[in-house]
Amino acid sequence: MGGDGLGLAQVQFALTAGTHFLFVALTLGLATLVALMQTRAVVSGGAVHERMVRFWGQLYVVNYAVGIVTGLVMEFQFGLNWSGMSRVTGSVFGAPLALETIVAFFVESTFLGLWIFGWDRLNRWVHLGLIWVVTLTAYLSAYFVLVANGWLQRPVGFEMVGGVARLTDAGALLTNPTAVVAFFHVLFGGLLTAGFFVAGVSGYHLLRRTAEVEFFRRSMRVGLVTVIVSVMPVVIFGGMQFEYVQPTKSGGHDAAAAVADFTARFGPDDYTPPGLTDVGAGLMMGMWSLMILVAAVALVKVWFGRWLVRGRVFHILMIASVPLPYVAMLSGWVFREVGRQPWTVYGVLKTRDALSPGVGSGALAASFVVFTVLFAGLFVVNGWLLARFARRGPGGAGLGGSPPADPADPVEPPVLSPTF
User: Fold this and answer.
1) What family does the Swiss-Prot or TrEMBL record give for this protein (predicted)?
2) What span, in angstroms and rounded, lies between the C-alpha atoms of 357 and 326?
3) In 152-221, which ranges are E strands?
4) In angstroms, rounded to a whole number, what is the distance separating the alpha carbons of residues 116 and 378?
5) Which residues, 6+ apart, have CB-to-CB distance to 186 below 8 Å?
6) 88 CB-contact burial (10 Å; exposed 0-12 / middle 13-18 / buried 19+)
7) What does the angle CA 382 – CA 60 – CA 389 come to, to the nearest 5 degrees?
8) How far out from the chain centre does Cα 79 lie?
9) 212: nearest Cα among 4, 390, 334, 16
10) Tens-digit pLDDT string for the chain (420 aa)
């Protein structure tokens, strides 16, 4: 990773970006499922569907709120540790990030606030429209971020003027195949993450022989169908990205030719990606294989719907499967990001040149400790809150007040065991 200062800066950004992405995936997927649940509730008028919206919507809001903090902290590092990147490529790289903040994030957060506090105050169709605006702007936000990252992977639509990148073709930037294909990969990856999460939480309650059998049977079905529908598109769009993979990452003759070209243009250096790249690729493939096997089991369970509430082994399997998409995401992120090294912008700006000048290893070590402790705390807090509200069940959902219970679904009695 280079010198001590450079290595610390890289690890610090890897920690913050990787942690933030874990929040993003679940947020994207849960927003979509909650929007679909609320659509069903508004159209059918069923109380059980409204209770599902409130329960899963509350978990979505918790994950969204903590994830926002991780995203804000991550943004600070561009100015603190990577000012060289901002100076050289800021007018191109910063454009989609500015669009993400102004067009997508502010709209998403505003309408989410209206959705949270608009329960029983707004017309039901208006309230439904709010969650769909939240969902669509969340995907728009993800798209703009991937446009920025796609430009780092495959820079297009720019020219270098006086050592500074200038945007010349906004259309090429916004339709960069590296970004577009990655967007659909992330879209279905978010749904896959949410599907496993919903199925895992439902499996936990069914394993405990909950009184809310019908509620979690329906939720389990939603989670499993989402897994079944999403798992293959994730694999397909992931495979499509190999068409645009950097030559140095692909190996063989293309890699040798790229190394020779870089050596002639930029001087001798280690232009081959670190070995961690192959580890990330292998682990990602392994997780995909496991998720496909679980999806096959889920297909059988969904086909024979009465089996959803039976089988302790199946419920344990779904609980144990919740981490699979997270491990796959982090592994794929390692393959995508680490494999670009030693470049920040592939073939344009080296990582060591993107580092802020004058930032000593002592200052980087101090900020690394602070960021590590902060993100570890946020990760633990998010996990604790999700587990706390998930264990309470639909009877403990406070989002939008207390809805009337569905007469067909008995209220779960209190559990006389310690909760956290």
Assistant:
1) Belongs to the cytochrome ubiquinol oxidase subunit 1 family.
2) 35
3) 158-161, 164-167
4) 22
5) 25, 28, 142, 146
6) buried
7) 60
8) 23
9) 390
10) 444 577 788 888 888 888 888 888 999 999 999 999 999 999 988 888 889 999 999 999 999 988 887 777 777 777 778 888 888 998 899 889 888 888 777 888 899 999 999 888 899 999 999 999 999 999 999 999 999 999 999 999 999 998 899 999 999 999 999 999 999 999 999 999 999 999 999 999 988 888 888 898 889 889 999 999 999 999 999 989 888 888 888 777 888 898 898 999 888 888 888 888 888 889 999 999 999 999 988 888 777 666 677 778 888 989 999 999 999 998 988 888 888 888 899 989 998 888 888 766 777 788 788 878 888 888 888 889 888 888 888 876 667 654 444 444 444 443 333 332
Helix, strand, coil in percent for the chain, rounding step 5: 75, 5, 20
Q: What single letter denotes the amino acid at residue 318?
A: M
- CA separation for the pair 130, 205 (Å, rounded): 30
Asked if residues 144 and 33 have their Cβ atoms less than 8 Å apart, the reply is no
Q: Are 44 and 212 in contact (CB under 8 A)?
A: no
State the burial class of residue 33 (Cβ atoms within 10 Å of its Cβ: 0-12, 13-18, 19+): buried
Strand partners, 345: 349
Rounded CA separation 127/124 (Å) = 5
